[in-house]
Amino acid sequence: xxxxxxxxxxxxxxxxxxxxxxxxxxxxxxxxxxxxxxxxxxxxxxxxxxxxxxxxxxxxxxxxxxxxxxxxxxxxxxxxxxxxxxxxxxxxxxxxxxxxxxxxxxxxxxxxxxxxxxxxxxxxxxxxxxxxxxxxxx
Length: 138
What we know:
By secondary structure, the chain is an alpha+beta fold. The chain is built from four helices and six strands, in the order E-E-E-H-E-E-H-H-E-H. It has helices at about 30-45, 75-95, 95-100, 125-130; strands at about 5, 10, 15-20, 50-55, 65-70, 115-120. It has a four-stranded antiparallel sheet, covered by helices on one side. It starts with a strand and ends in a 6-residue tail after the last helix.
């Protein structure tokens, strides 16, 4: 069961699955980088009243990472992703300069866009049925 969280004048649960891909899909995400990204994303989400629920890189291809975030209603998904990608890119390039030098000579780490899907709660069909059944039954 999903636990609804209180916010200023609202309450809810807004889980979003986000995927960030490395620039040029270079296979640069190691266990150490994944661990550091997890720490950064968790801290950055907290600064935006959001919560990082899960964070895991695909260490097979080593070129993308999956995040599950409970997004606060006061921040847009685009703004949160911009914060996460900008700060993590700068910090990762600073902390792992030697490992990344063969792949990136410009100040980049992430591909420009990101993937996302909303998740959590009931499946879409169940929600549609619930809404359809509101009101009076004649």
